[in-house]
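Supplementary Note 3. Input sequence used for the single-chain structure prediction.
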Amino acid sequence: MPVPDSPSTDVLTTDRTLADAVLAGKPGAFERLVREYQGLCWHVVDRMVRHPDDTRELCQEVFLRIHRSLHQYRGDSALKSWIAQVAYSVARRHLERKRIPIVEKCNDEDGPGLEESLSDGVDLEATASDEEINMHLHSAIEALPPLQRTLLTLYHLEEMPIGEIAQVTGLAEGTIKSHLFRSRKRLRSLLETRIGVPV
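The predicted structure, written as discrete structure tokens, is reproduced below.
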């Protein structure tokens, strides 16, 4: 029986076919892979480093690394997750080299237990429908530490399930849920301060 939220057989087959075409050196295959996943790569790296020049350079590094190590992709997870993992790893190392912390030190008492719902906090989709609030929301997201920005992006923008985000980041699912909970709580607080109404 498949694990909930695991990629469908069709997705895995399509991904394996593309990876095999790249590995076989078929004309245009690698370019197609880059076209398909450059948006994902940009989202992950940019959310971590927040510097356009660094992001461009690091995205190039990500795809060079993918080209060199695609033979390690086993095809048991979505190619999207594997590429996001490479992008996350490259961005994380960049921040470590610059001695930029990726997460704030905090105590875990304000995080949820594993059973607690992630919907506690800000409804990002509903909030983002108003243009002015949307502007404040993006500004509030910018104020979060790199890891929390990235987790929000993967969960809400890339619509990755928690299990997949765990594969990408190497974090435990409970840790991811805790970060998402705290991030949403902080966003709600920031938005209430900036626009003066509860969200």
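Residues 73 and 192 are 44 Å apart (CA to CA). Residues 107-117 have pLDDT under 50 and may be disordered.
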